[in-house]
Input
Amino acid sequence: MHTRTIEPWTHDHTFGQDARRRGERPTLVVAILTIVTMVAEIVAGWAFGSMALLADGMHMGSHAMALGLSVFTYAYARRHAGNPRFTFGTGKVNALGAYTSAVVLVGFALVMAWESGLRFFNPVPIVFDWALAVAVVGLVINGVSALLLTGREAAREPYDRGHAGEHSTAETHGDHHRHDHHHHHQHDHNLRSAYLHVLADALTSVFAIVALLAGKYLGAVWLDPLMGIVGAVLVARWAWHLLRDTSGILLDQRADEHVRQHVRRAIEGEADNRLADLHVWSVGPGIYAAALSVVTHDPREPEHYRALLPTRLGIVHSTIEVHQCREATA
Output
């Protein structure tokens, strides 16, 4: 068989990851703002003796790292989307970056908790006015960053399923491919994550301001290290959820049950069709791969069963086996 005869069935595996995302530029701007503010708060926290301000700066540092990883993954996923070494494209680069960020975040949380605990037993003088000024500036920066991302965070980007190659196998195990030119719209999860980081940063800045005001006007100096511990708990909690979610993606954990149920109902909605095997897993933000084994009394071409799959599910790559059930019909 000549190579040119199989061209209609060949395809790439970029799955739209080669397109520049709308959120790439604003995320870069917010990352730079966050890094500058982080340095200012950490330096001020040490200089002015405020553990809450230091914790806010370190918390902001964790988000600066996450934002930096978001910028990196945008660029890396786009530039390497067509690299054939990536079996299902570069969609999981986001999950890998987030997992790495979460591991480092655990270290941040431990340091914050340790330093805050030391301040309970060995308090240091706090220069409240300067510490408050830096904390307020940090909150303002967070507000500006949120405004930069708010309009973009909810933006939907077109996903061209024309990039999405889908394999099929029948009983003869012949490969088959179809280019579906519908557009599937999805949220930019990388940008959404950046937006949530900024909101969490703003919350921690509020904690620092409350602690400093209470210390200055009420003499509740103990509230400063307490807020540092609260900040550490927030970082640890965020890191735990991120580790749990991203590790599931990296280990090819099966998709949410509602996705699987939609697939099952779509295939078994036709008389005599039964799914003997079903695997659906994430290959990127909002996109999935699927492997199905259909058993039926009246086998049809794999393309028929693929056409039954709802396009809104974001299944960009599917492998379908069709088997004839030779048992007598009841």
Remarks:
- DSSP finds eight helices and seven strands in the chain.
